Amino acid sequence: TVGAVAIDKQGNIAAGTSTGGIANKKYGRIGDSPIIGAGTYANNITCGISCTGTGEYFIRTVAAHEVSNLIQYKNTHPMEALHEVIFNQIAPLGGEGGMILLDKYGNVFWDFNTKGMFRGYKKSTGDNVIEIF
Amino acid sequence: NSFAIVIHGGAGNGIVPENLNEEKQKVYKDKLQEALNAGYFVLEKGGKSIDAIQEAIKVLEDSPLFNAGKGAVFNSEGNQEMDASIMDGKTLNSGAVAGINHVKNPILAARMVMDSTKHVMLSGKGAERIMEKLGLEMVDSSYFFTSNRYNQLKRLQGNQTRVVNTSNENILNDNKYG
Fold first, then answer.
1. Which stretches in chain A have pLDDT values below 70?
2. What is the ipTM of this complex?
């Protein structure tokens, strides 16, 4: 699975996700990536999010929208919101994966409960980071 | 007027140093950097975020390194079925496709659903028929094939008939099927 979130000079946020799904999946199985609110979400009011992992759990927890709601309605810090959904909502169900988040201020956050996640960001401030583990 | 882009190429328990030596890590990092640059270029010119993420994801779909587009994993019947979605934070407008395997860049199909239909999600043959009509680049499904992914499927299915070597954690982690 691959994904991207961006904020442009007008302050508009967009998010996208694309995937082949899970290896050896049943014919016709659909995961969270094409489901708005589960694997992909963007709202100028809060943030943009793209997810990767065992999609069934991201669907059941409506993961991306849940993170956005925690930020919007409980004023939760984005890092805390990501951790809450990944580690306290998805992991107890047996799910694994990660999320990238870009908030309306252009701050980048990511979290995952697997051993690694291919990820990176580039900002107009000059920051350019790429990480794997 | 600041701008930024963040990307991912997937998360998994197979992404561990013992599976990815320095050389392999550099190959992945170079491709991630190429995707970041493609999206950043759009933003730097004052372009829209929706176009920036599309360009970044296209780079990753075109690379056999990642599970999307070329290099997608195989389903239990030995076929590839791809899904994608895109969302605009200003209008909440969204597009998604599911279960397609003849559109070269699934993220472009999701964008086409968002911009050119009144729907949010289209799936399978219906989605592909509309994409062809709208002029999206279509390919034979063999375009997406990589032996790496096919061997991964065979390994998983082989394991399903054999007792899994539970002492090897990586093999165990690759078996998400109980």
1. none
2. 0.99
